[in-house]
């Protein structure tokens, strides 16, 4: 579900809320069941988007996540890892535990159930498909006033 005001765009589902502050180009990701909110700049958000997109392209991970293959039947020591842009955010999944751990370079790790991770991926997919959201991202990506423009220009 999308909500838009003059100052903020937000997307929400039963698993998470994603906010974009239009004035500052900053993001907040609220994990509902974990009761934690993580604040991200543009670069950190883009790294998260790429990480989620890459993880959803991993066939083995998707089969476990969607229960096409029973995660409880997987090897106990099986670990699936995906790292985002410059290791800003990384994902590790232990299928036998049915958990996905997101680790952010800001010193925060969030432990998600498979359902929570799927909810997060759907939320990001919905936001990325929204025209108003994409316009705001583009504005902050090319603006000299963007919160992390200088860092992105050096890459």
Give the strand content. 25-35%
The order of strands across the largest sheet is: 1-2-3-4-5
Total helices: the number is 5
Shape type? elongated
> Which second-level CATH architecture applies?
Roll
Which whole number gives the mean pLDDT? 89
Provide the CATH top-level class: Mainly Beta
Which regions have little confidence, pLDDT < 50, spanning 5+ residues? 144-155
Straight-line distance between termini = 34 Å
Largest sheet: 5 strands, antiparallel
Would you list the SSEs in sequence order as H and E?
EEEEEHHEEEEHHH
Q: Which radius of gyration do the C-alpha atoms yield?
A: 16 Å
- Any idea how many domains? 1
Number of E-state strands: 9
Helix content: 25-40%
| CATH third-level topology | Transcriptional Co-activator pc4, Chain A
């Amino acid at each position: 579900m999308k909500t838009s005001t003059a100052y903020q765009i937000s997307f929400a589902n039963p698993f998470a809320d994603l906010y974009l502050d239009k004035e500052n180009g900053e993001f907040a990701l609220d994990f509902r069941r974990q009761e934690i909110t993580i604040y991200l700049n543009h670069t950190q958000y883009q790294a998260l988007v790429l990480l989620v997109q890459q993880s959803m392209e991993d066939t083995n991970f998707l089969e476990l996540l969607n229960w096409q293959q029973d995660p409880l039947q997987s090897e106990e020591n099986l670990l699936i890892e995906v790292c985002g842009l410059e290791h800003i955010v990384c994902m590790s999944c232990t299928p036998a535990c049915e958990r996905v751990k997101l680790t952010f370079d800001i010193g925060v790790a969030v432990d998600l159930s498979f359902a929570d991770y799927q909810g997060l991926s759907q939320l990001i997919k919905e936001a990325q498909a929204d025209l108003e959201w994409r316009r705001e991202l583009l504005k902050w990506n090319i603006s000299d006033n963007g919160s992390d423009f200088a860092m992105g220009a050096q890459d």
